[in-house]
Amino acid sequence: MFQTFDSAGDPAVGKPRVALLRQWLEANGLDGFIVPRADEHQGEYVADRSARLKWLTGFSGSAGAAIVLRDRAFVFVDGRYTLQVRSEVDLDVFSIESLVDNPPAVWLKDNLG
């Protein structure tokens, strides 16, 4: 595979998919859902079929996570992706957080704990 500078993300996917996830959360009595970048084996190299973060958010970077709550949604990325994430996710749907300075576990404890 050759390096490309074309964006592989799609900000249009976030809004309808987050809406469906929120319907599922409501139907199952859940408050939120965490989506890691890693695959089901916690592997670093994720096959297209396991690209859950990209499917939900449109973000195609190699490090990140998302938290979707009933009324808010967040994408966590490290410093390498601060520009890329803003072009690949719908900023009306997702707020951007630092994966390093405020990782999902810390964010959850500080905001929901």
Question: How would you explain this protein's 3D organization?
Answer:
This protein has a single domain (about 10-110), classed as Creatinase/prolidase N-terminal domain (Creatine Amidinohydrolase, Chain A, domain 1). The radius of gyration is 14 Å and the shape is globular. The chain has helices at about 15-25, 50-55, 80-90, 105-110, and strands at about 30-35, 65-70, 75, 95-100. The protein is about 30% helix and about 15% strand. Helix 3 (about 80-90) links the parallel strand 3 (about 75) and strand 4. A four-stranded mixed sheet has the order 1-2-3-4. The longest helix has 14 residues, at about 15-25. The chain has about 110 residues and is of the alpha+beta class. It is built from four helices and four strands; from the N terminus they run αβαββαβα.
Mean pLDDT: 90
Under CATH at level 1, the class stands as Alpha Beta
The count of strands amounts to 4
Q: Which radius of gyration do the C-alpha atoms yield?
A: 14 Å
Task: Offer a quick outline of the entry.
By secondary structure, the chain is α+β, with helices and mostly antiparallel strands. The chain contains 4 helices and 4 strands. The longest helix is centred in the N-terminal third of the chain and has 14 residues, at 14-27.
Which secondary structure elements does this structure contain, and how are they paired or packed?
Elements: H1 14-27, E1 32-36, H2 52-57, E2 65-69, E3 73-77, H3 82-88, E4 95-98, H4 104-112
Parallel strand pairs: 3-4
Antiparallel strand pairs: 1-2, 2-3
